[in-house]
Amino acid sequence: MAGHNSPHPTMESFQKINTFYEQYYAALKEKGIHSHKETEKGFWLSSVSTEVFDLFRTIGLEQFNHFADLGSGDGKVALIASLFTKSTGIEFDEELVQRSNQIKKEIGANNLRFKKGDFLEEDLSAYDILFVYPDNPLVRLEQKLLKEFRGDLIVCGGIYPPERLVKKRVVQINNAVFGIYRRGWLSGYFTGRRWKA
Ligand SMILES: C[S@@+](CC[C@H](N)C(=O)[O-])C[C@H]1O[C@@H](n2cnc3c(N)ncnc32)[C@H](O)[C@@H]1O
Predict the structure, then answer these.
(1) Which domain holds residue 74?
(2) Which end of the chain, N or C, is more open, meaning fewer C-beta atoms within 10 Å of its C-beta?
(3) Is 92's C-beta closer than 6 angstroms to any atom of ligand 1?
(4) 142 lines ligand 1 (CB under 6 A)
């Protein structure tokens, strides 16, 4: 962790993103378009902006070099993360990636990119902190992380907790619970010997 990023993003910069998404969802609703949908890889639902911003402030996201949201939906979490550090959103659904890029342009965000792809096929060793709001059990992601990732994984909600990564910390913001996981020395042992695919 290098700590060279934006230590104190202003409430104004966050409010700009928050207000943008609120207005955007309201406009979609007026047209009868839902802000959730089934995708080829799962189901898209959006995190709550204020909870995500408070989470990032609580953990000091600026201390990390490169954040990635695995399954970034319409880009909200990756956009908020870009207020603190370099940020990437990886999403399989083409339409959601297009929307994310459009919103990025309209907000004028820096430090941020969106990639269309399957995060299970990306090299995740390039990041030091990952976020996932899982819509499926994390078995395949966890196997991959045990092999190639040494940083922290934030898991939103308690429905699909990782089973072999070690829980370092739990952050509760309002009713939202975020678990922070990382590889333990025993996880490495199991990856190398017993669990190796
Ligand atoms: C519950 S949504 C979370 C969206 C966003 N992270 C947020 O918190 O607002 C999960 C997203 O992950 C995407 N997804 C699921 N599996 C994926 C995969 N293997 N590769 C890329 N995207 C994936 C889905 O298409 C969906 O948009």
Answers:
(1) 36-196
(2) C
(3) yes
(4) no
